[in-house]
Design brief:
By secondary structure, the protein is α+β, with helices and mostly antiparallel strands. The chain folds into three domains: 83 residues, Arc Repressor Mutant, subunit A, CATH 1.10.10; 99 residues, D-Maltodextrin-Binding Protein, domain 2, CATH 3.40.190; 100 residues, D-Maltodextrin-Binding Protein, domain 2 (3-Layer(aba) Sandwich), CATH 3.40.190. It is 35% helix and 24% strand. Strands 3, 4, 5, 6, 11, 12 and 14 form a seven-stranded mixed β-sheet that branches. Strands 9-8-13 form a three-stranded antiparallel β-sheet, with no helix packed on it.
Length: 327
């Protein structure tokens, strides 16, 4: 019996609660998974998994054993990474979660640059539209683009900020003249992404703050779909400037109400990860690489630049906020 191999298979079954899915992820046959688990249970003299025709669940003992197996496998991975680090090169796989805004802009370049430096690394990427859709504790590292960070249980490294802009396509503006003042938005077709205010937008000028009630003709979960709908001429939307930078450059989108100050338009890109006492070598290498990459990014133009914020003292909001482009 290869006990370590059986433990790895059991841990995957416990994670998936599905024999076929565990076999698929491990690249082995269903029969190998079944046989290995039966051998492990026989070796331990206990039942770890309840099996029925419809579902798989862990026994109480199985739950306890799984927790210890996860700790053991993490320690083994750390040992492998330590040896790899000793020869100057991290190795392994990072589980990354990223907002769709970030995943479709800077993330591919970040991963490409890091893998060019650490060629033995691989990535398991999950993309989400809303932070509430993911449990960040299930990932090694998470990139979140938030107006206000809602999870403080992780170490949170602010990387950069950007601001929203109000945009429309030339086709839409040919049908509906561009609003000259914020109040005119009430008579326009508005598209709203799930992470943007949907009831009203606020603007500030020398006379104070003006609240404009908008009537969305469409509320869409995905910012990507919002952008495409705006390009198609469906209506007006507020989106991150970095997210629409290419479209503004090629003229397929135009900014509106540039003379008005949009309130609540700031977004921060956060790098989140677990604050374990002993961070895995590969994770530490990746975090250091990402932070240093944004520290060295050239500043944006004066119109878009966001001032740096000094070191934060609270651990959950962590060290520094770096200005520059990005989301």
């Amino acid at each position: 019996m290869n006990q370590l191999a059986s433990i790895r298979i059991f841990a995957k079954v416990a994670e998936c609660l599905n024999f076929a899915e565990a076999a698929k992820q491990l690249g082995i046959s269903n029969s190998v998974v079944t046989r290995s688990l039966a051998t492990l249970e026989e070796h331990l003299g206990v039942r770890l998994v309840n099996r029925t025709t419809r579902r798989v669940s862990l026994t109480g003992t199985g739950q306890l054993y799984w927790k210890r197996c996860v700790e053991l496998l993490r320690q083994l991975n750390d040992m492998d990474e330590y040896i790899a680090s000793a020869v100057g090169q991290p190795a392994g796989s990072l589980r990354i979660a990223a907002s769709s805004l970030y995943a479709t802009t800077d993330l591919p370049e970040v991963l490409a640059a890091y893998r060019a430096q650490e060629s033995r690394m691989s990535f398991d990427l999950t993309v989400f539209d809303n932070m509430s859709d993911v449990a960040v504790s299930e990932f090694d590292v998470c990139f979140s683009t938030e107006r206000r960070l809602r999870d403080s249980s992780m170490v949170c490294r602010p990387l950069a900020q950007t601001r929203d802009v109000i945009v429309a396509s030339p086709d839409y503006l040919a049908r509906c003249p561009a609003p000259r003042a914020p109040g005119e938005l009430a008579s326009h077709d508005v598209l709203v992404a799930s992470d943007a205010p949907s009831r009203y937008w606020e603007f500030r000028d020398t006379h104070g703050t003006q609240r404009v009630v908008v009537q969305p003709i469409m509320n869409i979960q995905s910012p990507q779909v919002v952008k495409r709908a705006v390009q198609a001429g469906l209506g007006i939307a507020r989106l991150s400037r970095s997210f629409v930078r290419a479209e503004l450059a090629n003229g397929s989108l135009r900014t509106l109400l540039d003379d008005a100050t949009l309130c609540g338009d700031e977004r921060t890109v956060w790098l989140l990860y677990s604050g374990q006492p002993y961070m895995a070598v590969a994770l530490r290498s990746f975090v250091d690489f990402v932070v240093e990459r944004y520290r060295q990014k050239p500043p944006e133009s004066k119109a878009q630049k966001v001032e740096c914020v000094g070191p934060a003292q609270h651990r959950s909001s962590n060290t520094e906020l770096l200005s520059d482009e990005i989301l």
